[in-house]
Amino acid sequence: MYKKIIIFLILISASTIQLFAQNATDALRFSFLLPYGTARYNGIAGAFGALGNDISGIHDNPAGIGVYRMDETTLSFGFLFSNVNSTFQGVSTPSSYDRLLLGNLGLVRRVESKKQTKNKQVFGLTFNRLANLNSEHQIDGVHSSSIGQVWFDRAQGKTDVQLLNSDPYLYYVAFFPYLIDYTDQNTKIIDKLWAYGDNILHRHRRQTQGTISEFAFTYGGNYLNKIQWGVQLGVPFINYQEEVFYTESNYDISSILRSYQLREFLNLTGSGINLKAGVIYRIEQNIRVSAALHTPTLYSIRGNFEVAPSSRTFDNVEHRPNPLVDDNIRFQLTTPLRIQLGGSYIFDNIGLVSAEYHFTDFSTNRLRSSLYSLSEDNRQIKELYQVSHQFRIGTEWRVEKLSLRGGYSLVTSPFNRDSKSGRYNGIHTGFGFRSNEFQADVSYTLFLNSQEFFIYDANYIPAATLKNNRNILMLSLIFRGF
Fold first, then answer.
1. What does the angle CA 217 – CA 220 – CA 223 come to, to the nearest 5 degrees?
2. Is the pTM value of this prediction over 0.85?
């Protein structure tokens, strides 16, 4: 082991080595958004494109700011509880997690002008949580395959130096802890896989934390109470951490290895910029239609990646190299263009029904870097992803100062060959109290998702099934004239 470490340190000091590779998962993670905002917004499934008068709604359609008739200040916070049940090889493993949430904060102010009587103008400064990236799951089960076989097939026939230069990650996680090795000291060509046996206990635990948030400046107006328009400059921020523990354990004493463990830690932060524009048109007093366009968001992302493998033999010899860190992650992400269409019908002052459609082509995500080529990653993005359609419908009914709300949302899968894994169904409900100067809203949202998850290469191991129930409780406080 010591000799391997010396060789690795000498070679790594003489070359530029990238351990962490951006891939299609990163592009999707930071561009896939579910309906998420104020309690009123959540209560009717985010179908606010043709309604306006909500600070989360104006992040979807900036024209909604033209509907405001009073100055407002809004604060939202809540609670997230999620449970994930995994099934792998007949073994069911539950996981759960919870988080306190800051939903959004913002203010909207009218522009007073005696000259602009036909075109009343409004601006807003808002902070909105676009996505909550917190999750956790654990997968347990027995299967005869090993991740070592995947790596051996990739490395077989190469010398140790060739493997280091072509795939430093594989060199470190497989060759260092003796999962793969060579038998000829002269050629040093990798030709040996230290096998476990047939009954291998697999455990995969993954925990993520993070958010996508956006600061925005919105400016819009109301022309003759017929057309509302708006434009928005958005500055989104990414904060993401992911930790994965993967373990293979074996109790067949006739084999060489007893266990193998791999820990990976990823930390990414970034910021971006985008533009949005929208319009709401009142066909009649009670009927509104809307359209909005979001330019691609241009993100600049940086971070670090840490990997720590270890193995143990049945004679209790442990191979545990020091963790290796890649702190030079630098790349840019361009997310897809988004198109939104909506319509609503308002029943005088007693209720409303609203619907909305979102179009996003996730195959147009693009990764770039000045440090390394990402052409292969972009090819995978085109191959793996497709257009995702998002449908939202919601309703609100008022009884004096009280409001009751409900809605349903459907997000179709962004995966080209898997219509199930990326599909989300949302059930939304809520209620609120409103006076002239104050409003309080509460909402409950349940997102349902079932997906196939491969703990490593799908050609070597069957998929686990993950069933995710994501519960969000949100409270919003709105102060008018303040």
1. 175
2. yes
